[in-house]
Structures are given as C-alpha cells and as structure tokens.
Design goal:
The complex is a heterodimer.
Chain A: E1 4-12, H1 19-27, E2 33-35, E3 48-50, H2 57-60, H3 71-87, E4 99-104, H4 110-122, H5 132-135, H6 140-149, E5 155-158, H7 164-177, E6 182-189, H8 194-201, H9 212-215, E7 231-239, H10 240-246, E8 253-262, H11 275-287, E9 297-299, H12 306-320, E10 326-328, H13 341-355, E11 357-358, E12 373-374, E13 380-381, E14 386-393, E15 397-404
Parallel strand pairs in A: 4-5, 4-6, 9-10, 9-14, 10-12
Antiparallel strand pairs in A: 1-7, 1-8, 2-3, 6-7, 8-15, 11-13, 14-15
Helix pairs in contact in A: 3-6, 7-13, 11-12
Chain B: H1 6-17, H2 27-31, H3 34-37, H4 41-55, H5 61-66, H6 70-84
Helix pairs in contact in B: 1-4
The chains are: A alpha/beta, B mainly alpha.
InterPro entries (chain B): ACP-like_sf, PKS_PP-bd, PP-bd_ACP, Ppantetheine_attach_site
Keywords (chain B): Phosphopantetheine, Phosphoprotein
Protein name (chain B): Actinorhodin polyketide synthase acyl carrier protein
Chain lengths: 407, 85
C-alpha cells in the first residue's frame, strides 16, 4: 500500500493568513489572541479569542461567493486555495471523480445563521436569506470547496468537535486507499458571533481572564480554561504513487497513522480519566507501525482545563513514560480552533519536521507534576522523523495522528 | 412605487447574490441566461424575495424557476408593478 502524502498546505490563523506567515509568527511567538472585536463581548463570561482580523473576503473570493457564505466558509475557501496552489494540483489532468473533499466542522456557519435569525426577528420571515438553506450547514465548506475547484470525487464532513479535524484527515486517507488520487481535506472553524459564543461559553471551559497573558495556560498550576479562536488548515492529501505520477512539486510530509476512540459516559469515570485517550494514542502508533521510541515530539490537545490537562499528561506519560519527549502547544498563540485545531497542528508539525525546529508555547509555566517537557519561551531545534498530534472533542471524542516528514 | 429599470434589477441581483460572472449590464445582460451570468436558482429566489420587499412583486417559486433571463424577470415584474398602480 502506498503512503498518504501531504503535497499542499493552506493556513488561515489569527497570527498568520498563509502558511509561511503563520509559521514565522509561530516561531517568533506572535500571538493572535485579544479582546473580541467582532461583537461587543461585554456581559459574557469570556471576552478573549483568537480572531482573524482585517479579512476582506472580496479581496480573496469571487463576488458571487460573498453573499452566500459564512465567515468561516470564506476562510476555509482561502485555505483550500492556498493548499491546491501549493500542491500544484491541476484538476483537469486528474480523473474526473478522482479528487474528493473531506472537512470537519463543529458548528457550521453560525455567524450567517445568527444574522438570519436577527433578520427573522427584526424584519420578518420574508427577509431571511435563501442562502440560509445551506450557508449554516456543517457540510457547507466541503460543498463550496468542491464547487470552487471542480472536485467531483466523494465529499464528506466529520463532526466530532475539536477531534474532528484529525478525523477528517483520517477519512481522506481511507478514500485514498479506496483508489482516489487526491483529497482536499482539513478544517477551518470558529464561530465568533454572539450565537456561537453562548454555545462555547456554555461548556464552562473558557477562560474568564481579561489579560491575554493570563488566559490560556495549559499544564500550568494556574490553568483555568482556554481561549477559543477561529481558523485552521486545509491540506492536499495524495496517494504517493499518484503524486509522483502527476509530478507533484513536492511532498510536505506523510500521514503515517491515526486512531479515534470514544470515552466512557460522563459521570461513570473520574473527569481526568485517561484510558480512552491513551488507547487512541497507542492505536495510532500501531496503525503507523511505530513504537513509542519512534515519536520525536507531541503536539498536545492542551485543553487548559485542569482535569483534562491531567488526563492528557497521564495518557502521554503512560505511553512515553521516562522519556524527555518535547510537548508543543503552538495553539497558545491562536487559541483552540475547534475542528480547525487538529489540521493546523498537523500543518505545524510538518513545518517543524521540515525545518528541524519545534515552536514554543507562551504564557504557561508548566507544572512539574504533569511530567511533561513542554517547549516554552523559544523554539527548540531538533531533527525529527515522526510527530504525534493529539486532539479531543467535547463529550468524549479522542483522536491521535502520527505524521512524518517528507523523507 | 418607483419604476423598475434594468440597472435597478442588476443592482438588486448584485446585492443579493454578488457580482455576476459577466460584468456587462448592457442589452446583452438582459438576454443572457442567469446560469451564464453565474446566478443559480437560490440567487434568483433571493432576488425574487427582494423584489417583493421593495416593489411588491409576487412571483411563485415555479415562475421564478422558469424565468431564465434578467430581461424576462424584468418584464414579469414590470407588468405586475404597472398592474398595481
């Protein structure tokens, strides 16, 4: 069986609107977290987010797409454009039904939906946009990317909260095994509107801090929640032989293994139970044919919620115990991006593998009791072969992915 | 109720569904199929909703789907506007 190789990367993040801008910001610890500006956050429990600011959709997308798309869909189209460009993918030269799209989403076009609810309430039913029929929907990013690039292969969407982004990449890898040439896959997510914000604050997991330096401090004794954000990454995933055959300009890395598990019913185990997450990590390693010693670094889920930090640390030390395994949390610069988090971490891991450098976490002083070697303060140089990415979603979703460099 | 012109209809289309794929709004625009202009059925539904709000023009969904071109839509709408005044 051929490997699934990443041939294109597209990034939209609060600290960078393309891959290299984001990577540069990440290595220099430039944060995209601040007080919410898109709506007045006064009166909500949490007021900080990783916002993508100054985005002008008309500068990136055809005019026809603007009235029918949510902010997060526009951002996902921009990321997909970059990924397809980076891969040098010429759709016309590939089999008509040979290129698919798989994305993940946690909420769909919430902001669009919010505006249409507002129209319904203030003006009446006739003023609700006909585009509401699909603009709100979880699968809308898959559909719009598919239409924009003429990708007529299988399309799908994974909805498993923050774990969904990794699950989408895994589904794309399955499609390649079934004979597809390429899949545009990943997730761009976030719903920073009042309607989305009440859904996110309802979890009780958001940081109430008003100072960005004190807000999102995973694995810190002072950890008290996380900061959400918007953005993510889209990748072009190809069958290695197909990529070679078409003369793809470059291989950015490989998806080596993946596993997803579902945790026990809440309340039946302690909130810091690590069993299901540990199993996802072990199964991902097994899927990659890798041993714990083959993994050179971890990109952590890093919930910033003490019970969840403890569960992740327990799972990681159980699998990698006794080793000084570097743990990266670049999402301390962007916030946690819902389904966008996993693909952005995978993109970041591929860039880290390429350049032999691990990005630092900011604002956190990792507690020794977790037993993790979190990379903080400045980047750490390290030659690596394989990296583990972990993502967890609300309600028990666990996902783990092993990614390798281009060689 | 003001008269509806082709320019005005083009503005409503742009407002509702964005800039079309053909920028020309001369005589040719009126006779080009909506699909050639880059406007799909949802774009036409959205435009029909706006014509109702601004001009009181009532078109059934079936009528909307069969209209075909901006020129035909203009003709149907103007007939209703004239009939109402």
């Amino acid at each position: 069986m051929n490997a699934a190789v990443v041939t294109g990367i597209g990034v939209v993040a609060p600290n960078g609107m393309n891959t290299e801008e984001y990577w540069n910001a990440t290595l220099t610890a430039r944060s995209g977290i601040g007080r919410i500006t898109r709506f007045a956050p006064d009166g909500y429990r949490a007021t900080l987010a990783g916002e993508i600011r100054g985005f002008d959709p008309a500068a990136h997308l055809p005019g026809r797409l603007v009235p029918q798309t949510d902010h997060s869909t526009r951002l996902s189209l921009v990321a997909a454009d970059e990924a397809v460009r980076d891969a040098g993918l010429d759709i016309g030269e590939l089999p008509e039904y040979g290129v698919g799209v798989v994305t993940a989403n946690s909420a769909g076009g919430f902001e669009f939906g919010h505006q249409e609810l507002d129209n319904l309430w203030r003006k009446g039913p006739e003023y609700v946009s006909a585009y509401q029929s699909f603009a709100w929907f979880y699968a809308v990013n898959t559909g719009q990317i598919s239409i924009r690039h003429g990708l007529r292969g299988p399309g799908g969407v994974l909805v498993s909260d923050e774990a969904g982004g990794l699950d989408a990449l895994a589904q794309a890898r399955r499609l390649l095994r079934r004979g597809l040439s390429a899949v545009v896959t990943g997730a761009v997510d976030g719903s920073l509107c009042p309607w989305g914000w009440i859904a996110q604050t309802a979890t009780g997991q958001l940081s109430a801090a008003e100072d960005p330096r004190l807000a999102y401090r995973p694995f810190d004794e002072e950890a008290a929640g996380f900061v959400p954000g918007e953005g993510g990454a889209m990748l072009v995933l190809e069958d290695e032989a197909a990529a070679r055959k078409r003369g793809a300009p470059g291989v950015r890395g490989r998806i080596l293994g993946h596993a997803a598990t579902f945790g026990p019913k809440p309340g039946t185990v302690p909130p810091d139970d690590a069993t299901a997450l540990r199993r996802a990590i072990e199964l991902a390693l097994a899927d990659a044919g890798a041993d714990a010693r083959d993994i050179d670094a971890v990109f952590a889920d890093a919930a910033g919620v003490p019970d969840l930090d403890r569960a992740e640390a327990t799972a990681l030390t159980a699998v990698f115990g006794g080793r000084e395994l570097p743990v990266c949390v670049p999402k301390t610069l962007t916030g946690r991006l819902c389904a966008g988090a996993g693909p952005l971490d995978v993109a970041t891991a591929l860039l880290a593998l390429r350049d032999g450098v691990l990005p630092p976490a900011v604002h956190t002083r990792p507690s020794p009791r977790y037993g993790l070697s979190v990379v903080v303060g400045r980047p750490r140089e390290l030659r690596m072969r394989a990296v583990l990415v972990v993502a967890r979603g609300l309600g028990g979703f666990n996902s783990a992915m092993v990614v390798g460099g281009s060689h | 109720m003001p008269d509806l012109t082709l320019d005005e209809l083009a503005r409503i289309l742009r407002d509702c569904a964005g800039e079309g794929e053909s920028a020309g709004r001369d005589g040719e625009f009126a006779d080009l199929p909506f699909t050639d202009l880059g406007y799909d059925s949802v774009a036409i539904l959205e435009t029909a909703a706006r014509l109702k709000q601004e001009y009181g023009v009532v078109l059934t969904d079936d009528e909307v789907m069969e209209i075909g071109t901006p020129g035909r839509l203009l003709e149907l709408a103007r007939r209703q506007i004239a009939g109402a005044s």
